[in-house]
Amino acid sequence: MCGIIGYCGPKVAAPILIEGLKRLEYRGYDSAGISVLGPDGRHRIVKKKGKILDLRKAVPAELPGGTGIGHTRWATHGEVSDRNAHPHTDAAASVSIVHNGIIENYSALKQRLQGKGYIFVSETDSEVIAHLLSDLYDGDLERSVKHAVSLLKGTYGMLAMHVNEPGVIVGARNGSPLVVGVGDGEMLIASDVTALVEHTKQVLYIEDGEVVRMTADGHRTTDLRDKPIDRELQVIGWQIEEIEKNGYDHYMQKEIFEQPESILRAIQGRLEPENATAHLGGLNMTSRELLDIERVKIIAAGTSYHAGLVAAYALESLARVPAGSELASELRYRNPIVERNNVYFAVSQSGETADTLYAMRELQRKGARVLGICNVVGSTIPRESDGGVYIHSGPEIAVASTKAFTSQLSALYLFTLLLARMRHMSYEAGLRFMHDLERIPDLVQEVLTRTEHVQELAKKYAQAKNFLFLGRGINYPVALEGALKLKEISYIHAEGYSAAEIKHGPIALINEETPSLFIVPNDGLRDKVISNMKEVKARNGKVIALGVDGDNELADIVDDVMFVPKTHELLYPYLTVVPLQLFAYYTALELGRDVDQPRNLAKSVTVE
Ligand code: G6P
Questions:
Q1: Are residues 64 and 11 in the same domain?
Q2: Atom 1 of ligand 1: nearest residue by CA position
Q3: 379: domain range?
Q4: Per-residue pLDDT tens over the stretch 475-533
Q5: For the chain, which terminus, N or C, has the lower number of CB atoms within 10 Å?
Q6: Residue 375 pLDDT grade (very low, low, confident, very high; cuts 50, 70, 90)
Q7: Ligand 1: nearest atom to the Cα of 300
Q8: Catalytic: 603?
Q9: How many domains does the chain have?
């Protein structure tokens, strides 16, 4: 949610900032801007409504200066406009700041500053930081930033520069991520490592309540009481190629097609064939503690929440442990009951989603053990969790999540196998499940070879105004995910429902113009789902079925049919979700949508 970047070094800052913002654009893309401290000792600010491309066009070819900050915005306070874009400055243009987060007490601070004669030009909460800093500046930017942030309530990852201190950037963090990149004679700082990986692999994560002062030669991190923080540098594992499109038209397409490999990466090295179980070292739990688990609760948002819903079915069915998935945003504010032997998973691709992070903190306050299932190494959730599993999907850049979903499933299925083998699952049953799991990457590959057919169907149905996605059992959350994918990127109104539930309401929407996509694997619920499909057909609804190879009866009942290969009953979500991701992708393409950066959304939502 908003991306920020800063650069100090011998190179011209502007192109580095813009390139970095391009990498961070998935965090927000309604407007963007940069501020460069020029050799003339003045801030040159260029900011623009629109994408980074629009900003790039607006930046003059000659914009000298080796120190600068940049921002890509996802609007919270104030409309999308040039004026509300960051960086913000004071009337004398002595400071410039970029901010990611929300300043909750900005109104009170604004009034106070206006009383002192400061003139505000934007509708943002962030502008207050610029005037506050200008007001408090005492000749030392680092000290002034500490003073200013001590007056702020809310969340921030912010960067500031002052004309009196050329070559210096000061950053502060509370609730919004900030990571320093240590280069050779140059320093960078950004909301996440994707903006840094091109320049350096050595990074330092800044924690809440810390302030970092950087110049081209080095950095110093302290807390608000000036206590020095001495933290080891970490090395980023990602390669630059991983954040390029590599010949694909869109990141989303690339990420869908990467799934055989990303699922494999999530599973690899974590299976123990000799014991027919899984090994997850990062959980930090003894066998006795695992055995004592009485309930598993998964908290998450968006697509990650759907992965949690799928996993809850598997956990209950295979490990026979009560399990559920809940929206983190809801859990946090309902005073959750934490019992001694409950284990929570915070599932988040980015590891930064505010709803999930705050819910995790609330649970930890109540004494709960919260494990993270995350993709971005070093992000806040894994750092604050009591243990967990990295899914190693590689960078996921398209706003609509795809490969993270199937890798989250992998981590949760491994945990399921581990728990199941400690409880009721026999060695043979464990081995069978393990082998079925190991075959999934190849089966997903097989599903991907059928893309062309999905593309044809997407073309056929792209003009629909409404869509229903229906499934049952473990495929019910896949229906939710299919609907989410379609609405996110094609803007077609789509609802995911249990196929059983449509007769209690959604069937009223059925007519010739509202297609329904039924997920109908060959499991114990198949015949029930077929009855539901027939109910829709009887009302002139168009029906697409997503069935399993060999289920030829489906073709006689529905208008169109897609198939996936056969697998273990509880592993179908891996296979059924892929055609739905492709369906959304090709529908969005057909409608000319911005697939990777759909309107109003952001990949990493760091505000509540
Ligand atoms: C945003 C993204 C979704 C994502 C959700 C949760 O809304 O647009 O694609 O599923 O956040 O993100 P997380 O990083 O916590 O998995």
A1: yes
A2: 603
A3: 249-425
A4: 999 999 999 999 999 999 999 999 999 889 888 888 999 999 999 998 888 999 999 99
A5: C
A6: very high
A7: 15
A8: yes
A9: 3
